[in-house]
Specification:
Blueprint (H helix, E strand, L loop, with lengths): L1 H14 L2 H22 L5 H15 L11 H9 L2 H8 L7 H21 L5 H8 L3 H12 L16 H4 L14
Helix pairs in contact: 1-2, 2-3, 2-4, 6-7, 6-8, 7-8
Length: 179
C-alpha cells in the first residue's frame, strides 16, 4: 500500500490533474476514514471527513519523499489539525482556540495540584504552578465553575460549524470513491 501511495503521489505531483488527485484521495481514504472515526463524537463523521479531505488536499503539495517519511506518516501528522475543528465545533458555543487550550492547561494543573496537595489548591498555588497571574487563575476558576465547555464563549458567538462552512472548495470536488 505504501508503495502505491508514493506512486500515486508522484503521478499527481507531476500532473496535478484532478483525475490523479481523485485516485490518490481514494488510496488515502482508509486513513482519512480512520481519523474521522477517531475524532467523531460531538461533530458528525461526515463533517469531519469533509474537513479531513480539505486538510489532505492542502497538505499533499508539501510532502517531500526525500525526507524519508512515508506519505501515510506525513498525512497522519497533518490530519491531526482536525482536533482544532473538533474542539472549536464540538459544542454549540464557539470557544476561541486559545481559551480552550488555556482551560485544558488550567484543568490539568488543577488536577495535578489536587493530587499533590490532597485538597483544592488556592489561586496563589495554581498561579505559581501555571506561571500565570492570580487574576488569570481566578478567571479560569470562574469559567470552570460556569461549565466552560457548555457556556457561551467570551465573544458570545453561536457559530456552529462556521469555519467548516467557510471552506467551500471541499464542496467543489467530486470524489468517486467507489471501487
Amino acid at each position: 500500500m505504501m508503495e502505491k501511495d508514493l506512486e500515486l503521489w508522484k503521478r499527481w505531483n507531476k500532473s496535478r490533474s484532478n483525475a490523479d488527485l481523485q485516485k490518490l484521495l481514494k488510496q488515502l481514504r482508509p486513513l482519512i476514514k480512520s481519523v474521522a472515526i477517531k475524532w467523531s463524537g460531538k461533530v458528525p463523521e461526515s463533517v469531519l471527513e469533509a474537513k479531513l479531505y480539505e486538510l489532505t488536499i492542502k497538505a499533499l503539495p508539501k510532502y517531500r519523499p526525500s525526507s524519508g517519511v512515508k506519505l501515510s506518516t506525513f498525512m497522519m501528522g497533518r490530519l491531526q489539525k482536525i482536533s482544532r475543528t473538533v474542539y472549536s465545533q464540538g459544542s454549540i458555543y464557539r470557544v476561541p482556540e486559545n481559551r480552550s487550550l488555556n482551560m485544558a492547561n488550567y484543568l490539568s494543573h488543577l488536577e495535578g495540584a489536587k493530587d499533590d496537595l490532597g485538597r483544592d489548591p488556592t489561586d496563589k498555588e495554581l498561579s505559581k504552578r501555571l506561571g500565570w497571574s492570580a487574576r488569570e487563575v481566578g478567571r479560569m476558576r470562574s469559567e470552570d465553575r460556569q461549565s466552560f465547555t457548555e457556556g457561551l464563549a467570551t465573544d458570545g458567538s453561536l457559530d456552529l460549524f462556521s469555519d467548516i462552512a467557510s471552506t467551500p472548495k471541499v464542496h467543489y470536488f467530486y470524489f468517486d470513491l467507489s471501487d
